[in-house]
Write a structure and sequence with these properties.
alpha/beta; 11 helices; globular; five-stranded parallel beta sheet; 15% strand; Rossmann fold
């Protein structure tokens, strides 16, 4: 059995090589993404795993079928880069890794929330200017005085809520499918609007779907408590960035932490230190003191990377040997 591992990063190599040795399977590495330009290399392979960020060309699904490929195993929880209808039409099983380290993302969400609540970016900027004063601009709230709304109470949202409850915050939640475990420390609201209207801090933990694209838009921001804080470690497309910037400018939103950005695929996780960033909206977010933004890195721990590599490769092996896999999404 031969597996091609596209989008391989240096930090994934140890886990991939150990998995290959343990399973007596050849894994070949390619640093680049899977595209129409390099798809033909797969004629000599049995399976493929990717770490894709940008959407696939719709033509690639038919080409993979022609090459005898039966599956694509994505090494992430998100799978919105795939056209699942096209994949299914061409007999391709798409899989993800739904749970690789929910603690990693939850811990990052809490860290990001504390950064915006405590005005860390502004404080650091003042220090760089040698302004060591205490003043109203940098005074902050305490977490225990806040009501926190967890939007999406799956694994990550539940852990995030539990940690914030430990800080003494009042935690409420909204999810179409309430989680019994989460009910031990939060109270569910009947609607999203009810949750966001009460919240001093909103933490988003939903997968991106066709139905919730730009769910957080101008209309929803207007229904929030004035001066709210928002954290998004889920998917960038859930938030209408232009409407978010307007809400920041008006004071409706005090500050936001973004580990995802709706137009991130061109830039995250790539090195643009010697290139020009053309996305003016991204540059604007980076420059703002009331925005804490990072390059979709909340998951990035040693444990998570190992679990993502092994989860992706396990799915490839399952499809080749059994015709399906535990984590298929179509």
């Amino acid at each position: 059995m031969r597996i091609m591992m596209f989008g391989t990063r240096e930090d994934e190599l140890n886990a991939a090589n150990e998995w290959a040795a343990r399973n007596d399977i050849e894994v070949v590495f390619d640093k680049g993404p899977l595209t129409m330009d390099n798809a033909d290399v797969l004629k000599d392979f049995d399976g493929v795993t990717t770490s894709q960020t940008a959407p696939f060309d719709d033509a690639i699904y038919e080409r993979l079928r022609e090459l005898g490929i039966k599956q694509v195993a994505q090494r992430s929880a998100g799978f919105d880069m795939f056209n699942l209808d096209k994949a299914t039409e061409n007999g391709l099983i798409i899989s993800n890794v739904p749970s690789y380290s929910p603690n990693a993302i939850a811990e990052y969400a809490v860290m990001a929330a504390m950064n915006i609540i405590r005005n860390t970016k502004m404080i650091q900027n003042k220090l760089k200017q040698h302004d060591f004063t205490w003043n109203k601009a940098i005074i902050s709230k305490e977490m225990r005085s806040m009501t926190v709304a967890i939007i999406g109470t799956g694994r990550i949202g539940t852990i995030t809520g539990r940690i914030l409850h430990g800080f003494g915050a009042k935690v409420i939640g909204y999810d179409l499918y309430p989680n019994e475990e989460a009910k031990t420390f939060l109270t569910y609201t009947e609607t999203l609007e009810e949750a966001i209207a009460q919240a001093d801090l909103i933490s988003i933990h939903m997968p991106l779907t066709k139905e919730n694209h730009h769910m957080f838009n101008a209309e929803l921001f207007a229904k929030m408590k004035k001066g709210v804080f928002i954290v998004n470690t889920a998917r960038g497309g859930i938030v209408d960035t232009k409407a978010l910037i307007d809400a920041l400018n008006s004071g409706q939103v005090t500050a936001v932490a973004l580990d995802t950005y709706e137009n991130e695929a061109t830039y995250f996780p790539k090195d643009f230190s010697d290139k020009k960033v053309e996305d003016e909206m991204l540059l604007h977010l980076i420059d703002r003191e009331d925005v804490f933004i990072s390059q979709h890195i909340a998951f990035y721990t040693e444990t998570a990377v190992m679990n993502l590599v092994e989860g992706g490769l396990d799915s490839v092996k399952q499809v080749i040997e059994m015709g399906t896999c535990d984590n298929r999404v179509n």
